[in-house]
Amino acid sequence: MRKATLSLIAWLTFCAAVLALFVPSFYIKGDVGLGNQRSPVASLSKNWQVHYGPVPPVEGADQWQAFGESEWRKLERYTGTIWVKRTLPAIPWRNPYLFVGGMNRFEVELDGRSVYRFNMDDGPVYNQFLMTRHPIRIDPGDEGKTLSLRIEWDRLPFFANAWILAGNPDQMLAQFLRNDAVRYVYAVLYMVATLAGIVLYARRREKLFFWFSTLAFTAGFGLLFLCTSLQWFADVGALYYWRDLLLPIGVWAFAGLYAEALGSVNRLPVRITKNTLLIYAVACFVAGLKSPTLYWKMLTAGFPWLALASIGVVTFAMFKYPAVSQPPIEKKWLRRGFIVQVVCGLGHILSNSFSSLDKWLIHAPYLLTIIGNLLANGLFLFMICNAMILIYRVRSVYRESERNAKELQSKNSELEQFHRNLEQLVATRTMELEEVNRSLSDTLREKAETMAEMSVLEERNRIAHEMHDVVGHTLTAAIVQLEAGKKLAAKEGALPIGKLDTVSGLVRKGLDDIRKTVRMLKTDAPHANIEASLRELIRETVETMEVAIEAYIDIPRELGRLTEQVVYHALQEGLTNGIRHGRCSWFKYSLRPSEGGDTLDIRLWNDGVPYGQAKLGFGLTTMMERIRLLGGTFSVGSSTDEDGAPAGCEIAITLPLQGQSAEDRKAL
Asked: Cα(101)–Cα(104) distance, rounded to whole angstroms?
């Protein structure tokens, strides 16, 4: 508590020092007249006469009246032409000038001779009548001449003290610079704060920095264009005019800043206030384009009430929606800045609203100067409070960065240790992998040798199967013919030359079949038609084996090469076994697709001895292996006669047709 009290006392002392000491010097002390030679500048605000109407008064006619305070007050409701005149007093300056202001359209004459015109033609008038000073050169010899003005007036207030000043230009500039010195300093500080806020917003993307930079921008340029001396160095007449538009924008930024800091951006009263201020600023801009009088009245008569309402909403938000997670130091500086800005802003509004205060404080010029600078100094203190909030946030970010850096450093040390451990683990695993690789190489070499031996054995088996299927059938036919020849020789007592010729042909055919089989084992051997081959085999069997074969062959489409070989050798092996072992004389053979069309059904029946439970021989075993390799089924067993008794043998084979060629290629 003691620390908080000391902090509050220090802050109040600082505020008092800024408000009491950091103020511009005042240059006119009281009502300065021509008789006071100590003052370098005189105000020609008295001894004027006025005439109203578009037609100038007739010379010598009594159409003029005194232009005093009562007439000044009437001008705020008057629209039209005004004629004013007075006699120039003694001119003691070596380089005398008149500095005319407070009007938007006027013409100056000396003894009826036009010496200066401003905005007398029709067209837009973007002129801040209280800020712009129009220098008019006069001569010391013009003393006693009639100074007259024709003014086009449009319901604006009249400020006599700022109307017409007389003096040397260098003295006038020196006094303006002395009056504007602190404003220049404040403007530079606020511009620096604007740049700092923009940089922070660009880096952090926090809206608080955006509102701060916007508020600093409006304060900086608002104070810059409050400097009357600026027009001595640049043409800033239009900038003076639009300067007042920064007021609603500044209050809009003020409301946005506090809403963001308090975390009440989405509260309905705050949103309505911000949107109203923005809309009002746009309306003032449109009014400024159309009517300088409406533009002035919106900013001086309507806007103060809107500003008070906005301050009330911000005050309500501070107490109604306090940010629970907001650090206490931010709350402290928010309250201090708010109180300072409200007190100084209300003091400025009240001092402008009650012009009679100037008469009461005329004998206390220092206090009057302090009141006149309440807005600038209060804004300076308010920006200090906001800067403290930004500094605290930046320091928080910096501390957070330091903490993150330490954590990263710790994590980096852990990562380096992990990297070293990983290198050791990789080295160990590499040695193990090299050992496994050597073992695997040995295993692969042994496997390659084994597979080579298996390939040789498979090739031998394949050749043996082919030789068995091809030569067995031919030799069986030769044996049948030899047996028949023996019987004829025994019966007739002479060698049957025809039978021997048949046996000789069969042996030669067997030799040709062996050669043909060797050629078929080559991958580039020519491809024969399967149906023609089957019918040729059936014809030769019928002619040489003395058996009858009833065949039905229907091949739906081209089969794979291995499938064709299996189909051919299955028929060949079935015929050979039936003749050799079954002693049959009649075969039935059918080859056709199934009803669904997805398989090929093969049936071979004979009338020989019943097959029974005989064990499969070499040929049938080879046939079964080939069929299963193609994904088919194989069965062999006895058939039945008309009485249902076992008779003969029947072989049933089913081969798949879908994707058959791909399976054949895979098997081959």
From this structure: 8
Give buried/exposed letters for 342-368 (b at 16+ CB in 10 A, else e).
bebbbbbbebeeeeeeeeebeeeeeeb
pLDDT at 287: 92
**Which one, of 149, 141, 143, lies nearest residue 112 by Cα?**
149
Percentage, residues of the chain above pLDDT 70: 79
Does position 526 have pLDDT exceeding 60, yes or no? no
Cβ(469)–Cβ(622) below 8 Å? yes
Round to whole Å and give the CA distance between 297 and 156: 8
Integer-rounded Cα Rg, in Å, for the chain is 60
| Neighbouring C-alpha atoms within 13 Å toward the C-beta of 43 | 14
Which has more confidence, 85 or 453? 85
pLDDT above 60: residue 277: yes
Residues 6+ apart with CB under 8 A from 142: 88, 91, 110
Q: What number of other Cβ atoms are within 10 A of residue 431's Cβ?
A: 10
Q: β-pairing, 134-137 with 113-118?
A: unpaired
What's the whole-number average pLDDT of the chain? 80
Rama region for 42: left / alpha / beta (φ>0; ψ in -120 to 50; rest): beta
Backbone angles phi, psi at 235, to 5 degrees: -85, 95
Q: Rounded to whole angstroms, how far apart are CA atoms 225 and 230? A: 7
660 pLDDT more than 80: no
Give the global pTM. Answer: 0.55
Q: 33: pLDDT confidence band, cut at 50, 70 and 90?
A: very low
- Whether 1 shows a pLDDT value over 60: the answer reads no
Other beta carbons less than 10 A from residue 116's beta carbon: 16
Handedness of CA 257, 258, 261, 267 (dihedral sign): negative
Give the C-alpha separation, 427 to 423, whole Å.
6
Mean pLDDT, range 17-38, rounded to an integer: 47
Spatial neighbors of 519 by CB under 8 A, at least 6 apart, are: 525
Higher-confidence position of 378 and 232? 232
249: which 2 tokens?
């924008």
Per residue, the 3-state secondary structure of 363-427, as one string, reads CCHHHHHHHHCHHHHHHHHHHHHHHHHHHHHHHHHHHHHHHHHHHHHHHHHHHHHHHHHHHHHHH
Angle between helices 207-224 and 374-492 (to 10 degrees): 140
DSSP H stretches of helix in 321-373: 328-353, 357-360, 365-372
pLDDT at 663 over 50: no
- Torsion sign (Cα): 84, 85, 91, 97: positive
What SS3 class is residue 450? helix
| Greatest CA separation for the chain | 186
Three-state DSSP class for 138?
Answer: coil
Res. 533: pLDDT tops 50: yes
pLDDT digits (tens, 9 = 90+) for 128-184: 888 889 999 998 888 889 999 999 998 888 887 778 998 889 888 888 888 888 888
| Residue 373 structure tokens | 């600078």
pLDDT band at 314; cut points 50, 70, 90:
confident
Residue 245 near residue 285 (C-beta atoms within 8 A) = yes
CA-closest candidate to residue 342, choices 313, 372, 301:
313
Q: Which residue has the tokens 């009056």?
A: 179
